[in-house]
Amino acid sequence: MTTAARPGQFTGATDNAANGGLFTDTKIDGIPDLVAADVLSAQTSATTATTQAATATTQATTATTKATEAAASATAAASSATAAASSATSAASSATTASNSVSSVNTNATNAAASETAAATSATNAAASASTASTQATSATTQANSALSSASAASTSATNAASSATTASGHATTASGHKDTATTKASEASTSATNASNSASTATTKASEAATSATNASNSATTATTQASTATTKASEAATSATTAQNYALKVDGAVESSNHSAKAWAIGGTGVTDTAGSGSAKSWAVEADAVDGTEHSAKSYAISGTAIAAGSAKQWAIGGGSGFSTNTAVAGGVYSAKYYAEQAAASADSFDDVYLGAKSSAPSQDNDGDALTTGDLYYNTSDNDLYVYNGSAWEVAATSVASLPTAGFTIAMGIAL
User: Fold this and answer.
1) Domain ranges of the chain
2) Cα(first)–Cα(last) distance of the chain, in Å?
3) Average pLDDT of the chain?
4) How far apart are alpha carbons 129 and 142 in whole angstroms?
5) Helices in 255-330 by DSSP H: which ranges?
6) Fewer Cβ neighbours under 10 Å: the N or C end of the chain?
């Protein structure tokens, strides 16, 4: 059975029957070209696979480095950023995947190299066999043309050539299989390299995310530390202020700051306030019986004291001197209380009222208190405008009115009274 030659592959085939060759099968004639082309393709695929494997290895190394850096960053930020730790873990996993992919690429590259070597060996064997077949065919042709007697030898040589051709065909088939294996392995190497590149890219992305998360966590931690420090300072200041405020409110065993005392000390007394020159609590200034600051007395003493105030208390000046507040007892320096002078004024007024009975339209028969008239009593008669005096038994004119002096009677009466 004849198999057509591969288009464009058997450009060097010249030993077929049409060209005077011994063989009629074009497939066998084109084995050297086919094997050479397959070997070249396998070598190219292997080279490409090796290059891709090297690229994948470089990318995997970069991914491993980035994953290591991401892991370090994640470790530093672990206490404050769970998200950063998760990202770092993802990066580490991606790096492991990339490393595994690179290992697979290396294996595939090794297999491709082995296939290349096997193909080269097969090609060498095929070339040797073809050379042998060509030599033998040439010998057979010469012997056939020289004499029929050489036909048997030529036939034998042909048989040998056919065997060699069969061997070469087997080697070619093997080379083709190796080529297919090399192509498959190269494709697998390319896929593995792509996977490694993708894994390395994922690892780089995860590492970047981890670095960002770590930076954010670091910034948050710094902010938290600053705020905590500020809070601690403010708390300390607040505690100090609270203590100071409490002392200004309640402290009575001395000054709060310098010569400043608490509200309680100024209210009810305390060390440095009570019985201290220039000081004294509000309570002392209100009710203390003794001198508050050594010289001055309290409001109560000035108001109701009977003995503490040498110049006299308000109560003494109101109703009477001495501890008994007697009206007839002088308060200080021979001067009496207001009550005393009021009583004296009242007595004087009553005495005058008992003598001058005032203006009346007719002669009275009693004084203003309803008592009997006494000698010397006076009254002004508004009917005749005369001043009358009581002589002990009757009223008689004491002075006659002067027209130019409407109040002459009163003036005269005052003159008599005084």
Assistant:
1) 17-236, 346-418
2) 184
3) 75
4) 20
5) 263-268, 282-287, 299-304, 314-319
6) N
How far apart CA 416 and CA 409 sit, in angstroms, is 10
Per the CB < 8 A criterion, the answer to whether 119 and 175 are in contact is yes
Judge contact between 325 and 306, C-beta under 8 A.
yes
Q: Are 84 and 64 in contact (CB under 8 A)?
A: no
* Secondary structure (3-state) at 20: coil
Single-letter code of the amino acid located at 56: A
Confidence band for 289, pLDDT divided at 50, 70 and 90? confident
For residue 413, the model assigns a pLDDT of 72
Cβ-based burial of 239 (10 A; exposed 0-12, middle 13-18, buried ≥19): exposed
Q: What is the pLDDT of residues 86-113, one digit of tens each?
A: 544 653 564 465 456 446 546 755 764 6
Residue with tokens 């995947």: 97
How far is Cα of residue 383 from the mean position of the Cα atoms in its chain? 105
Note the residue count of the chain. Answer: 418
Residue 189, number of CB atoms within 10 A of its CB? 28
Least confident range of 8-17, 165-174, 241-250 = 8-17
Residue 336 backbone dihedrals phi, psi, to 5 degrees: -100, 175
Q: Is the Cβ–Cβ distance between 265 and 252 less than 8 Å?
A: yes
Cβ pair 71, 87 in contact under 8 A: no
Residue type, 325: F
Q: Where are the alpha helices (DSSP H) in 251-287?
A: 263-268, 282-287
Helix (H/G/I), strand (E/B), else coil: 372 = strand
Computed over its alpha carbons, how large is the radius of gyration of the chain? 72
DSSP 8-state symbol, 1 = -
Determine the pLDDT at residue 234: 96
Tokens 């004084």 locate to 367
